[in-house]
Specification:
Blueprint (H helix, E strand, L loop, with lengths): L9 H13 L2 H8 L3 H15 L4 E4 L2 E4 L1 H25 L6 E6 L1 H6 L5 H7 L4 E5 L14 E6 L7 E7 L3 E3 L2 H4 L12 E5 L5 H8 L9 E5 L2 H9 L5 E3 L1 H10 L21 E6 L7 H12 L4 H12 L1
Parallel strand pairs: 3-4, 3-5, 8-9
Antiparallel strand pairs: 1-2, 5-11, 6-11, 7-10
């Protein structure tokens, strides 16, 4: 039978959306300016319509079922699309404004070098740039697209790798004097960013070292802070190539196990900067134009030039 799927009432989905986020009928009711009983009735209506149990009561709290967790994912995306559509057609003075968020590192080391080219190609677009480290909420934070550091594991958005961010193991000469082989890293304080939860583990396995019990590690919110800690001799850091080469050229840091020891790591274990945009946003002409421009750039060319300059030095 090819009948169309009949969607449940929108009010029931709105109530579900609020309850799924708050895990509380009362808090959902406060958000919707109705009584908890009214919210409960809408949830019951939705469960009856879907013939699926969505919440389990546990004392005074409620917990979403597996079905509710799955449904909440899609309902959140749907309401975000509704909000974006309304915003686009009602804020007419801002229709040509594109809000791009990037990690601070990508903005400083890549994007700012290319903004003059962007302005030449798209002079009519009003670009607004923010630099939040964490993944933004596209609707709440009024962001059209974002550049995030990671491994490309984002779903329900258009995800495109812009440039890989391989790492160089670096430390001060004093720490390097204690490192004769990769396994010696286990006795060091290891520095990384909080987003790279398994990068050191991948590196140890690549080097043939069982991670085992490590001496300790310190995670930083951003790459710049981790680099400063490495320069201060707090531990062994993982630096991006152009930072590493600049610090090695100045004599402040060394690569105790060699500059190229991580060059042959598998691609899926090498992080990078990814451009993320909700697919619905690409229906907006200005967003689509910026997306095409971002994807078409050779963001790695600055890396190559810097590497050549370092080698000549």
């Amino acid at each position: 039978m090819n009948g169309k799927l009949r969607l449940p009432p929108l009010n029931a989905l709105r109530a579900f959306h609020a309850v799924a986020r708050h895990k509380s009928l009362r808090q959902a009711a406060d958000e919707l300016y109705v009584t908890p009983q009214a919210v409960g009735q809408q949830i019951k209506l939705l469960e009856d319509a879907l013939q699926v149990k969505l919440f389990e009561r546990k004392g005074r709290s409620i917990e979403p079922t597996e079905s509710a967790v799955l449904l909440a994912h899609y309902v959140e995306a749907g309401f975000s699309e509704f909000a974006e559509g309304v915003r686009r057609i009602t804020r007419s003075p801002y229709r040509d404004r594109i809000n791009l968020n990037t990690s601070p590192y990508f903005a400083t080391n890549y994007l700012l070098r290319h903004l003059s080219e962007f302005r030449e190609e798209m002079p009519s677009l009003d670009l607004r740039l923010t630099t939040m480290i964490d993944m933004p909420d596209f609707a709440r934070d009024d962001v059209d697209m974002t550049v995030q550091w990671g491994y490309g594991h984002w779903s329900d958005v258009e995800c495109t790798l812009l440039v890989r961010d391989p790492k160089v193991i670096c430390c001060t000469a004093q720490i390097a004097a204690t490192l004769r082989k990769p396994a010696d890293l286990l006795d060091c304080t290891l520095l990384d960013t909080v987003k790279s939860k398994h990068l050191w583990t991948d590196i140890f396995r690549h080097l043939g070292v069982e991670p085992g019990e490590q001496h300790g590690s310190i995670g930083f919110d951003d790459a710049a802070s981790m680099r400063r800690a490495t320069l201060q001799g707090i531990g062994v850091g993982l630096l991006s190539p152009h930072d590493a080469h600049a610090d090695m050229r100045s004599g402040e840091l060394v690569a105790p196990l060699g500059r190229d020891i991580l060059d042959d790591m598998p691609d899926d274990q090498v992080p990078g900067f990814y451009l993320l945009v909700p697919r619905g946003h690409l229906r907006v002409q200005g967003v689509a134009a910026l997306h095409r421009w971002m994807v078409s750039q050779d963001w790695g060319r600055d890396l190559i030039r810097k590497d050549h300059a370092t080698n000549r030095g």
